[in-house]
Amino acid sequence: MKLYNTLTREKEEFTPIKKGEVLFYQCGPTVYWTQHIGNLRAMVLADIIRRTFIYNDYRVNFVRNYTDVGHLTGDNLGDADSGEDRMEKGAKREGLTPDQIADKYIKIFEDDVKALNTLEPTHKPRATEYIKEMQDMVEDLIKKDFAYSTPLAVYFDITKAKDYTRLSGQNLAANRDGAGRANTEDPQKKNPEDFAIWFFRAGKHVEALQFWPSPFTSPLVKNGNGFPGWHIECSAMAKKLLGDTIDIHMGGVEHISIHHTNEIAQSESANNKTLANYWLHNEWLLANNSKMAKSEGTSYSLAEIKEKNFNPLALRYFFLQAHYRSKQNFTWDALQAAATGYERLVASISVLGQAPGKVDTEFKNKFLEKINDDFNIAAALAITQEVLKSDLINADKLATILDFDKVLGLNLVSTEKEIIEIPHDVKKLLDERLLARQNKDWKKSDELRDEILKLGFVVKDTDKGQEIKKN
User: Fold this and answer.
1) What is the pLDDT of residues 340-381, one digit of tens each?
2) What is the pTM of this model?
3) Are 104 and 41 found together in one domain?
4) Bridge partners (DSSP) listed for residue 30
5) At residue 200, what are phi and psi to the nearest 5 degrees?
6) Closest CA to 133 of 7, 237, 277, 251
7) Contact assessment for residue 284 and residue 327, using Cβ atoms and an 8 Å cutoff
């Protein structure tokens, strides 16, 4: 298996730390709002990568966290230590507590990723459940002289980190000259890029809704009351659940310059070990060739997809059509095309019978070649069409495609319900009816359904497309 490693900027052969096992951490959502489909795409892409390892007979210990404290809105401006805590923003918006906000949006998120047929993580920690582990890491960093305190926060000193910018390749001096970062809100920070690993309940955070006592001291607060910085959370949870060094750390490309750079700095300084051997980063999902944004009305949720009568698995099928390291442009027309492709695939498989035969070795090897080359899922998906057009007997076609579906995750196994042979003239009517439905020509659709019935078959519309059985 070959993976593109952001850290080395090369495609590398995968070698696990533990034979037959993959230690995999993905940065999960900040649960103050409904996740848009761009965020959900990242979850599906990680699911594809995880399924690929499982398909290659690896055990995957997969951690995806929930950030429910400490992620400030300034991250949007390139400075994760500025702005308002997102959980507090959500709580004020809805008149709820931060815990209630977290519970609400975790539930929505989990319903969404389930609808997209992603596998359950091995662990799904909430940041607020690991405060002690975060404080322990902060203490360790202070003792080793990698961190220092001001009255407002405890900061990591980036000048003490080994090769701080090696993941991002940034020129910090040029960044400062360009004034691309928000102004620091703590005059006692030693360096503009130093980042908070613990915020005291002081200054702009004096009324913070979420806070915990700590061993750290500030003249402005009692008992070290405060909350963790965003970056320290993933470092502490990854260490607790997976160990000092993991195989794969994954997140969006927006995490490279700040969040993941800071994770590496603090984890490796505290543990004196490499944090992750492979760094994978997925590109953005665009909307009409622009970044998804609530302000532009292009931050679509899965609920909106469903409201327009699209099957969530059609959205998954759409996501599979682009490489994880490539941007993908979402439009309603593109989703409609994906839905059509998905329905046709399901319809094609539904006529293959119920009892799978043997998985074809030649096609399986072609499939493995694609998915094991940095998870080229779009090319792997195309092989399903080659199987359908091949000279294999139907039972072997079915077995081969259902084997592929262990990675694709399109729930094609549900097509095994009934053994039926569909005559050519009925197949032709089904295709015409599918086109009529896509054109919203309901009258024509009903007429074709009646014609199919006259030929001895009943067609039913489901969330997976047209299902047919003998009358």
Assistant:
1) 999 999 999 988 988 899 999 999 999 999 999 999 999 999
2) 0.86
3) yes
4) 67
5) -80, 155
6) 237
7) yes
Amino acid at 184: T
Q: Are residues 165 and 301 in the same domain?
A: no
Q: Are residues 190 and 274 in the same domain?
A: yes
The alpha carbon dihedral of 177, 179, 181, 185 has a sign of: positive
The total of structural domains in the chain comes to: 3
Q: Are 232 and 212 in contact (CB under 8 A)?
A: no
CB burial string 70-88: b at 16+ within 10 A, e below: bbbbbbeeebbbbbebbbb
Whole domain around residue 97: which residue ranges?
Answer: 16-282
Residues of the chain where predicted confidence (pLDDT) is lower than 70 = 173-184, 294-296, 413-421, 463-464, 471
Strands 285-287 and 290-291, how do they pair?
Answer: antiparallel
213-235 confidence digits (pLDDT tens): 999 999 999 999 999 999 999 99
pLDDT in tens, 400-448: 999 999 999 999 965 334 445 677 788 889 889 988 888 888 999 999 9
- Here the tokens at position 225 are 């009351």
The C-alpha atoms of residue 228 and residue 232 are separated, in whole angstroms, by 7
HEC string of 26-80 equals ECCCECCCCCCHHHHHHHHHHHHHHHHHHHCCCEEEEEECEECCCCEHHHHHCCC
CB-CB contact of 460 with 467 (8 Å): yes
Nearest to 227, CA basis, from 27, 86, 92: 86
